[in-house]
TrEMBL record:
InterPro entries: PPIase_dom_sf (IPR046357), TSP_type-3_rpt (IPR028974). Gene3D superfamilies: 3.10.50.40. Residues 242-310 are annotated as: Disordered. One of its GO terms (molecular function) is peptidyl-prolyl cis-trans isomerase activity. It comes from Nonlabens spongiae. The lineage of its organism: Bacteria, Pseudomonadati, Bacteroidota, Flavobacteriia, Flavobacteriales. It comes from the Bacteria. This is Uncharacterized protein.
Length: 310
């Protein structure tokens, strides 16, 4: 029988904030990111080599929730297959802050729903955050909405490996039943998490962490309502919507995915991608066919010289 959850709608979990650490506010010098990652990857590989999950209890044909339990390879469990040797574990990479980071995703069930989130979308999700001592530092058993651009990088990137559930049925008692949800665990170094600015002492500075997740629902998102999906406002395709000037065309300090006038020419982005009747000239939020009046290779909504040159 599928587990039931109350459906809560909030914008983001307190402990999943992706606020950048303020290196200048610390009297203690912040450690070198590459040096910390070199330590973190050893810690992660050691953990994955000495722990297993209850894979023998998982029935892929059962659409109900499955509680992932991680334990040490010792005693009666010494002959279990280590996480690092499970075919469900994927080793992924991303470059951030000039460091080539690696992180791991244990994909117990990919999810059978239609939508897979990007790092620019919103998700209804249940999760449990824990450190490598298996101590829980944050948990949301009841699903809540998380806006992925406002979460830590490792979390948002890891979620893109899963899909939403197939069914959401409201029960007579007001709870919801989800089936075939994407489920797994994301393991990440501190450079893709909280680095030197953890939200609580259970995490600690510079420590790798993990999140067990159940992905319920995906909402493909246009944060500023300009008609362009947020995923297409990552102009340098580095999987980060806040890459400074690279994702802030007019340099006003507001990333394009939150800026209703991307080029700062006084004409809203939505107006520049619409006809005279207000109908969008692009399909499905994809600006690849957006108007380029002066044929300079830069669409009007990103070109503040268009009006001046016309």
């Amino acid at each position: 029988m599928a587990m039931k959850y109350l459906l809560y709608t909030i914008l983001a979990g307190l402990l999943l904030s992706s606020c950048e650490s303020d290196d200048d506010s610390n009297t203690i010098p912040v450690r070198d990111r590459q040096e910390v990652f070199d330590e973190n990857i050893i810690d992660l590989e050691t953990y994955l080599s000495t722990h297993f999950y209850n894979y023998e209890d998982f029935d892929p044909a059962n659409p109900s929730d499955f509680e992932i339990v991680i334990d040490t390879l010792a005693g009666a469990n010494a002959d279990k297959i280590a996480l690092i040797d499970r075919p469900e574990l994927e080793r992924l990479s991303i470059t951030r802050d000039e460091v080539d980071y690696e992180y791991f995703v244990l994909k117990v069930r990919e999810g059978e729903g239609a939508l897979r989130p990007t790092y620019a979308d919103s998700t209804l999700i249940s999760y449990r955050g824990f450190n490598l001592q298996n101590e829980v530092f944050d948990e949301a058993q009841n699903p809540l909405w998380l806006d992925l651009p406002n979460t830590i990088a490792g979390f948002s990137l890891g979620l893109t490996e899963f899909k939403e559930s197939t069914d959401r049925v409201q029960n007579p008692d007001g709870t919801f039943t989800f089936e075939n949800s994407g489920m797994g665990v994301i393991f990440m170094p501190s450079g893709l998490a909280y680095f030197n600015n953890p939200p609580n002492n259970t995490i600690g500075q510079y420590n790798p962490i993990a999140f067990s997740i159940k992905l319920r629902t995906v909402e493909i998102t246009d944060h500023d309502g300009d008609g362009i999906l947020s995923i297409y406002e990552d102009l340098n395709n580095d999987r980060n919507l806040r890459s400074g000037d690279a994702d802030d065309t007019d340099g006003d300090g507001i990333s394009n995915f939150l800026d209703a006038d991307d080029d700062g020419d006084g004409i809203s982005t939505r107006e520049e991608i619409s006809d005279e009747d207000g109908n969008l000239l692009i399909l499905n939020g994809d600006p690849s066919t957006a108007p380029d009046s002066d044929n300079d290779g830069i669409p009007d909504y990103l070109d503040n010289r268009t009006e001046a040159s016309s």
